[in-house]
Design brief:
- There is one protein chain.
- The protein is α/β, with parallel strands linked by helices and 266 residues long.
- It has a single domain, classed as 3-Layer(aba) Sandwich (Rossmann fold), CATH 3.40.50.
- It is 45% helix and 17% strand.
- The radius of gyration is 17 Å and the shape is globular.
Length: 266
């Protein structure tokens, strides 16, 4: 099992695809293990190597005591790149993973060839503080298993949940089979709640693609629009009818859009 110790934490990772070119390094969101990127890995890996991993507190990686910070989790990611001898990578982050990628692009620009921010945000304030605060309340009310059940309507659109119920239950089963610990979830949620790169985002120079679902309830379209306005030259794509996890809800459209954008930079 590929584990590497970085910053005194064992991090689980997988490499997919062939070749020595800089890979896409996928960073998942709150409480999610790296295998939730497999719809993207399967679409990408014939053209570009891919790396997925479980952040601290999730999946097969170690849990440390809460709270975590975006800076700390970005440090884990940089240390993983060092272990894999990756001078740079194409960074693709979803939600909290996007916040981590944004920190890397601002503070370690030489390590980020391109940046993709999916369903992410610039700073925890206003409605984002309210919605992300709900995640903490849900976790504290019932623990991780309860958390995965209750947060589904925050992650997927009503139409998807009604028309794809069996798939939704399969996704829920996968979440529960590869969970974060209670302490790990709390640590990652605290990283969400303290995230603020308002003063650093002007440092980002990497070509940047921003995507969001039209019906994202957790981090609405306005959060991605704020990112686009803050990052010079960035592009914004809104997926019609999708919720927070367009990566899973509309994976075929998501994969086509993001891979088409990435190809000129490979």
């Amino acid at each position: 099992m590929p584990l590497v110790q970085v910053n005194a934490v064992n991090i689980y990772y997988e490499r997919h695809g062939e070749g020595d070119s800089p890979p896409v390094l996928f960073i998942r969101g709150t409480g999610a293990d790296g295998t939730r990127w497999m719809p993207q890995v399967n679409a990408y890996k014939s053209e570009v190597p891919c790396v997925i991993f479980d952040g601290r507190g999730a999946g097969r990686s170690d849990t440390t005591a809460a709270p975590y910070t975006v800076e700390q989790m970005a440090g884990d990611t940089i240390a993983l790149m060092d272990h894999l001898e990756l001078e740079s990578a194409h960074i693709s982050g979803s939600s909290l993973g996007g916040a981590i990628g944004l920190y890397m692009a601002a503070h370690h620009p030489e390590r980020v060839r391109t940046l993709q921010l999916h369903s992410s945000w610039l700073a925890t304030k206003g409605f984002a503080a309210y919605s992300l605060g709900l995640l903490k309340k849900i976790l504290l009310a019932g623990g991780a298993d309860f958390y995965y059940d209750v947060t589904l309507p925050l992650l997927f659109s009503p139409t998807y949940m009604m028309n794809n119920f069996d798939d939704l239950m399969a996704i829920l089963a996968h979440m529960k089979a590869n969970p974060a610990t209670d302490d790990g979830l709390l640590g990652q949620i605290e990283a969400n709640l303290t995230h603020d790169l308002s003063n650093d985002v002007s440092r980002v120079r990497a070509p940047t693609l921003i995507t969001v679902g039209e019906l994202d309830y957790l981090l609405p379209v306005s959060c991605s629009q704020e990112l686009q306005q803050a990052i010079d030259g960035s592009e914004l794509v809104i997926f019609p009818g999708c919720g927070h996890l367009a990566t899973m809800e509309s994976s075929e459209e998501f994969n086509t859009t993001t891979l088409d954008w990435l190809r000129p930079h490979l």
